Amino acid sequence: MARFSSLLLLLAALMAAPVALHAAPLEGTLRQAQAEKRLTTGEAEGIRASIDQARERNLPTAPLTSKVEEGLAKRVRPETIIQALDAIREDYAFARDALRRGGAEPTPEDIVRTGDSLRLGLTRAELAEMAELNPPPPMLATAARTRAALNAIDFSAVLSGDILRRGLSLGSLTPGWEQLFRVAQRTRDAGMPDDAVAVAATRVLADGGGPAEVLQELGLTVRDTRRGPAEATK
Amino acid sequence: MKNIITILTLMLLTATLQGCATMGTAVRKIQGEYYQVQGEYYLNRGDFSAGRTAFAPRLAQFPDDPELNYFMARFELGADKPEAALPYIQKAVKLSPANADYRFWEGVTFWALMKPDRERAAYEKALAIAPEHSSANLYLAHNMLDRGKNADALRLYDKVLSLNPLEPQAMFNKAVALERLKRFTEMKPALQRYLENYADAPLARQGVRMLNKAGDFTWRNHIIGMRTIPLRAVDFLPGSATLTERAATSLKSVGEILAEKTDLSVHVVAYVKGDNNLARERALAVRNFVSREYPEVTPERLAPSWFDKPENIKTDGRTHNLAQSVNIFTKVQ
Is the ipTM beyond the 0.85 threshold? Predict the structure, then answer.
């Protein structure tokens, strides 16, 4: 149970975290780590090479730089950092190919949101399946995040596939749907099955609504955590 | 003489210290007002990250300032981090236990953390301080509704509506509570009132479904394009094809959508039990009204059809027969 709670906290933090597209210069970090004997010259070169490969393929590099910062700060072994960079780079490359399927060029943010979803719990097969519907890149990125978060809480892959296909085909999958996993958590807490969430979500997507309406459809009320009810209009 | 100088020195020192204390208090008061304005600015903009960045150093300087703790909690909560918000809001409550707003936001934080018992306790404490706190009454009502205490929820929604008769969540959820209590004759006007005021709100579609399920078709959901649009039923003066004013308002909504979405066409289906001619006139009246009000919407985009039979509508396994009605929905190309 404690492990599950930790997972939810991590998931919530990841879903809430803004996408890092700007990071501190890499060289200063590497030089400092070398000066402190945390990194050999060869290891620093390996990190540079991995990020250069991403740059050469026109993939976003800022999240990779952030990863290096984070890894070095946490004293992660350099070869582990390089392995992580290679994995992220390949995820971004796969994500970009999927996002391009509809013919539009994705933004770096779309690539990062989608690529990071692959590490959060989305499978490549699921991403490819959703990309076949040729949605606009930002909507596919939203679908990727939504499905990854649902996977992370063990929501049925069949049900989440149904929901997201519906949202993508109707074009009604707005960014707010990334919070659908919270609806599932809340309804589970109230003893409702995931099937009920799927039915309600499908109906609300057809209506053009969002996850708050899913919760209300299922008989649970919503609180606005950003504004007091007196400030909200509807 | 020496004693006089000592007394004067002591008096001067006391006055200086008092002056400093007064000055210090004034500075803190001005600072507090400045923080409040700035905190509200970040909250209104929804820029929680910037708010946190601006307030963190101040909080480090004045860790026991309740308002700084409150704003930090709001920024964390706004950024979907209720775990991070909790210690701040609890500290604000501890430092300023008579502040009902802090108690209220503590309740919201507990909701986000899925702790309904602690959520309820926080709202109850807010209401013990300020019984007319509209937000605390509303969210306590929500808490009650979520746990199936429908009569308690209803009482609280009524209280909110006595404070603010047009509070949308209270209006809608009052109807939900009435539905659960099977008080349908009260539920219907409550929902109609909500829909009259908030027809474009996301919950309006659910409101219409609730009404229709209870056999009330004064409002209908219409599928126009990719969206479901709640509209007051298109009706006519008795025995005629003259549209009522309410019907005209609904049709203007349809006209606006068609004027904007130029690739859309709709079916207009009129039903009048036992009167084929009147059904035909009504279908044509709808088409002509929209085309007249919105000349850019050509009549060909509204395909009329009519039946001298009642319209059969299925809701939740029950079939309702409407002797007279008009249905409008997207024509699939």
Answer: no
